Amino acid sequence: MALLGELAATSTSRPARIQAGGLERLVEEWAENRSLSFAADLVGAALVRGMPERARDAAEFIIQLGDEAPHSARILARTTLGLQDPSVTATLPPSPSRQDLHTEIARLRKSLHEAPRNCVSWVDLARCYAVLGQSEPATRAMRRALALAPENRFVLRSAARLFIHTSDVESAYALLRSAPVTRHDPWLLAAEIAIASKLDRTPRFLKEGKRKLEGDSAAPLHLSELCSAIATIELTEGHTRRARQLFRDSLRLPNDNALAQVQWASRKHVGIALTPGDLSQPLGFEARAQTHRSEGRWEPALVEARNWLYDEPFSRHAASFASYLAGLLERYDEAAHLAQIGLDAGPRNPLLLNNLTFALASGGHLDDAQRAFALIPPHEFDSSLRPTLLATQGLLLYRLGNVERGSFLYRQAVEEAKRRNQPFAVVLASLYHAREAAIAGAADALEVWREAEREVEKAKPMPELPLLRSRHDPSSRQS
Amino acid sequence: MSSPASLLLGVKLDKGWIVTERRKKLPHQTGHYFSECYIVVNENGRKAFLKALDYSRAMSSPDPAAVLNALTEGFLFERNVLNRCRGMDRVVTGLDDGRVIVQDEDNRDQVVQYLILELADGGDVRSYLDVSKKFDTAWMLRSLHHVATGLRQLHSVDIAHQDLKPSNVLVFKATLSKLGDLGQASHRGQTAPHEDKEIAGDPEYAPPELCYHHVLPDWNLRRLGCDLYLLGSLIVFFFARSNLTALILEKLDPSLRPDKWQGAYKEVLPYVREAFERALETFGTDLERHAPQLKSPLLSLVRELCDPDPELRGDPKERRPGANQFSLERYVTRFDLLVRQEERRILLL
């Protein structure tokens, strides 16, 4: 986040002043005393003053000492010579395993035992627990961070994100609404407005947010997410022109959230499109994944979706999207793995359980697939997911050899999708039905394929269609 | 035309001091208002260090009255501080002060005022740290004990050193360390010439809150809190040859560093604290390698002395009503204990 400037101050409280110091004296002393302490003294001072060039040969001297010089001194020497990235290094790999997470939790707990006031570590601990699906310790850790720094932007946003992840959106909203600092901070205003929209409420600080956009001299990066949050409100209220302008403003120096929001808006035909330049933002994984998907570039879409999931391992959206893409590309083992990452953080998520079932069944792991499917809470079969779940159930039955029942469920899935006005689900269910009928060697396989073709022809263009048609066309299977 | 202060070689001063050698002003002897430095010897053969004040430079400046005023204030302030420190056995103190009349090149009488201070026969601690081929933990701890004692002595008379750094830890007879250079000190209730500087000492060693221009109005928090940080910083220099402030800044994202940060200190403090903990981890690596038996106590000391929040600095046991949060009593005791334990351990090896 520090890379994106999210942690940076938005306002100026004082001008920078440089006070003269003793650097010249240290340079002279080093010239007269070519030994470790004098070299190290100069290196440290030069770095603090932001003048590493004054200590280059002292730094080289320290490096040449190798192991004779202390580890800390060598780090500062390498920094002086530009040999080491001075930014904070991650202690977790990009795609941490459960073991990695447990190791990191142990490290953080030990560190916090010595330094219990380190709120950043409490947030990191909360995140690790969240990725493991342990909501209660995650929440406890986050509450410790909030107690230590109740007005810190990073802590507040992290806490809101966690509460949303644990399906406690009300708490997330209450937190931001009640924090005195929210009305003054564009990042927190953006979060409050976005969460209010999720809850279908009028944001408390919408006016403050709009005022901030009109009058604030903060850098575009600080206003980007706020612009896109307000733009979304304007769009839902039908003020398309105003929304379009705000989305464009948010692209001046977008962060990943703003980028994803603009990407979403571009799919709503607001009259805005992301350029390659917009998408080059370092952590814009979600936006890039969605853009690749919308343009039918499946391999790059999967790469970006993976990155998105590794960056946000407790994001259900990232996991379901990534596992969906992997399944689309028939990489069933990977699809199962990606769904499982999401399930580690949210064990009962029905869409992820569905995706996992699909991947396992398609990959021939029928027992595991049945176990996963059995975990889906029964009430989800009455939700908007019903068509998807019926289709997946149909797939399972086909693979278990029950062709008639499988076919019935697929047809039910299509009808349900039509009834609920889910055209994408209609097409997907139809095409996968055709696939299963062909694989099973069903007598009506050709008829099922023709039904699917009819649904495809009726449907609006979708990026998946060419790929799925080419995959499931019986004539291509025969060849 | 030579300045009068440069004409002291061979001159006999009051109380038997003779000026025997002219010295390039040593880096650890600041006092920017002094122009010349000498070695003096008394009748007993004791050597000392002389700093000579030269008013003639004021006359050639654009604003002679202002410069005269600054020179006088600076001289008087340091003389007063040195007088307050007489008898402190862990602080380089003044031995004498006075005035002498010398004749310039035109045979006119010129007055030169001077201060005479203890002379460190061994230079500063950096030379000693490098001379020893082995990692002499007992020596380092003893030196730190002396430094803590010296600070305690200063604090007991309401003086904060403000400029404690490796070059100001002077070594006497290879075994005794003393705090040198009180030129940037702060004396509670007195206004020093450098009072308006945000960072009294060298900014290269300043605690993080001062790097971010977070200047607290309370004298204890600002001045004593700074001294505690500088003491803890010395521990890191002794055992890892590293500047703690540099280590902290190195762990911070560039956008959060003092030169880029434009907000208030309390907003950046959580990230500074995280960077501080990472800096301690790095320091801990060196302790693990060279002095594993000292890792836990030294990390505790640095953590307490150098807390990025000055309001939390100091021994937690002193954070009670009526106590002095910045008291060095316990730290002097802790260093003493560590010295004894380390000496015993080494004897048993």
Estimated radius of gyration of chain A: 27 Å
Distance between the termini of chain A: 50 Å
What fraction, in percent, of the residue positions of chain A are helical? 55-70%
Number of helical elements of chain B: 10
* Major sheet: arrangement of strands of chain B: 1-2-3-5-4
Number of strands of chain B: 9
Number of domains of chain A: 3
Strand content of chain B: 15-25%
**Regions of chain A with pLDDT < 50 over 5+ consecutive residues?**
none
CATH top level class name of the largest domain in chain B: Mainly Alpha
Level of helix content of chain B?
Answer: 40-55%
CATH architecture grouping of the largest domain in chain B? Orthogonal Bundle
Task: Describe this protein's structure.
- The complex is a heterodimer of chains A (479) and B (349).
- By secondary structure, chain A is mostly helical.
- Chain A is globular and about 95 Å long.
- Chain A has 3 domains: 58 residues, no CATH class; 194 residues, Serine Threonine Protein Phosphatase 5, Tetratricopeptide repeat, CATH 1.25.40; 172 residues, Serine Threonine Protein Phosphatase 5, Tetratricopeptide repeat, CATH 1.25.40.
- Chain A has 27 helices and no strands.
- In chain A, α2 packs across α3 and α22 runs antiparallel to α23.
- Chain B folds into 2 domains: 115 residues, Phosphorylase Kinase, domain 1 (2-Layer Sandwich), CATH 3.30.200; 224 residues, Transferase(Phosphotransferase) domain 1 (Transferase(Phosphotransferase), domain 1, Orthogonal Bundle).
- About 2% of the residues of chain B have low confidence.
- In chain B, β4 and β5 form a beta hairpin.
- Chain B has a 5-stranded antiparallel sheet with strand order 1-2-3-5-4, covered by helices on one side. A two-stranded antiparallel ribbon of chain B has the order 6-9.
- The longest helix of chain B has 26 residues.
- In chain B, α4 runs antiparallel to α10.
- By secondary structure, chain B is of the alpha+beta class.
- Chains A and B meet through α1, α2, α4, α6 and α8 of A and α3, α6, α7 and α8 of B.
